[in-house]
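User: Please run a holo structure prediction.
Assistant: Happy to. Please share the sequence and the ligand.
User: Here you go; the ligand is nicotinamide-adenine-dinucleotide.
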Amino acid sequence: MDVVGHWTNGAEIESASGRFGEVFNPALGEVIAKVGFADQAEIAKTIASAKAAFPAWRDTTLARRQAIIFKFRELLDSRKGELAEIITREHGKVLSDALGEITRGQEVVEFACGMPHLLKGEYSENASTNVDVYSIKQPLGVVGIISPFNFPAMVPMWFFPVAIAAGNAVVLKPSEKDPSAAIWMAQLWKEAGLPDGIFNVLQGDKEAVDGLLTHPDVASISFVGSTPIAQYIYETAAKHGKRVQALGGAKNHMLVLPDADLDLVADSAVNAGFGSAGERCMAISVVVAVEPVADSLIEKISSRMAQIKVGDGRRSCDMGPLVTQVHRDKVQSYIAAAEQDGASVVVDGRGVVPDGDPRGFWLGPTLIDRVPLSSKVYKEEIFGPVLSVIRVNSYEEGLQLINSGEFGNGTAIFTNDGGAARKFQHEVEVGMIGINVPIPVPVAYFSFGGWKHSLFGDSRAHGEEGFRFFTQTKVITSRWLDPSHGGLNLGFPQN
Ligand code: NAD
């Protein structure tokens, strides 16, 4: 059986901790590898290798750093099929979707290639007589990244291209459910010419995470995962003096106004609800239909759902399995809860017949109508292929519903009324908004992040905010004396 190791100082090393996690192929329902969990010695060794490599990388010219990141981009672009296969094997999503997440990650690598521009400081000549003031941006040092299972390539790439471009050394702690993508990317960095120790991978569970959160040589933490863990990460890392950005969970609503194109809405709801088996933080999980459109919309959505092929992601299917049996069972339990709470299950994914091994962690796309707002099916993040419909009588009622939720990651409005869309973008309390676009993930040169319990900290991922997060600024006030200066002056310079 394969054992997935850490990547420390430019090489994969097997864990000697004696603690392991099982890595499944969710489409086969069987264990395909083990991943070693870091102990204290391995945590210390990995952080030390990053710390040792940092000064030389910080001092490497912008042109050289840029060339290495560009090379990484070229290698990634030409070999992304290998990475997609790894993702499909351990996560379960279909190959085209795995390629899609790599492409979105690659966009951040491309954005990071422009870092000489983004790392420029400011200069004010003659702020006072013969005094110039200027600022420079410098890297933080060793930065920690902790990522979730659902995007084993894209989410780390939201952060590490920017962190490395800015001159930092990275320690990535991937999800223990799909740990191999990180090792593949580490190998690629080596081939691109990145010095050993600048990109490290520390495999593990809470012990590895806590090691990063509390180690004095780790300057910052970038986390993506569920809300309770994000809150813990934010509080613990901040208590240990670190800069922290912690992106949490989501419950994304799609508001459908009566004038919307219902065929477009139905396509969008199905794509955004069931792509990647609903295991996306920007998935649509609630359709808020402003009456009288609900019945007709449900009919259109159901007929499209009947065409979704569920199966092994290596075959030509639309939707793969869920990531683990435990997660599948949990998602499935929400369907039973919906029935108990009086909702109506319009399409039930529990009886799905997959194009794949019967031992896989299957659940078909599920549509639930008339979900009571008090039900946990409405209130909690489900993170699976379960789409709820809530009926409301007005735009105002729909808006109020969205704004009263715990999360504020993404939302979408579907309408042909530009004025209504503009009102919505102004009034809704959510960080990323789609107008007739169901999954409004910002492009790499904007920043990604939600509001409320979808983001703890004040910095979002990539874009200019990413560079701000991974750098610290020095402001220098300088005076080069000319022969005419002189005299004591204990006050502030006046002019
Ligand atoms: P998770 O919170 O279980 O795990 C995320 C990371 O935290 C993993 O690396 C895991 O090993 C670690 N972790 C888990 N339990 C921990 C603990 N008790 N202490 C310390 N570390 C711990 O999340 P997941 O199940 O891997 O991913 C799905 C979640 O991520 C969903 O809630 C989803 O909405 C969220 N997510 C959010 C975004 C976003 O941009 N806001 C993007 C992707 C995923």
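The chain is about 40% helix and 25% strand.
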